[in-house]
């Protein structure tokens, strides 16, 4: 069985278009990259120990350094990457959530490779609101279907 992750995709309606909060991945590999270099704030969890929503909220806090807003979250669905990793995404309308004041979580990596030198890097280096059509090519490929599902979810909710 592949790894399991859970994340939160906040959305808001701005000037009649849907915007989502996504984050640029940190670390040396992602510096200077934009296409397919952004992600929904998410992370791995053990389904035997933690519920997907609890994991999504914990990961939001770990990655962005702020608590996930207290909102009514809906499970958008689970999306499987080509690697087999499964990501369960929760959505909520977060119009009042500012994309600022973040203290990004960090990870340690040998850098440069084979140097023996360990360095700390942020898991994410920025997060911002962006329209769906702007977010789509920026998001990692395995998460793009979540944007389509969000658009369908909001269309169904408005009927």
Automatic annotation (TrEMBL):
Pfam families documented for this protein: NUDIX (PF00293)
Leader sequence segment: none
Residue spans crossing the bilayer: none
Matches recorded under InterPro entries: NUDIX_hydrolase-like_dom_sf, NUDIX_hydrolase_dom, Nudix_hydrolase_domain
Annotated Nudix hydrolase domain residues: 1-152
Record CDD domains: NUDIX_Hydrolase
Protein name per the record: NUDIX domain-containing protein
Source organism of this protein record: Microbacterium memoriense
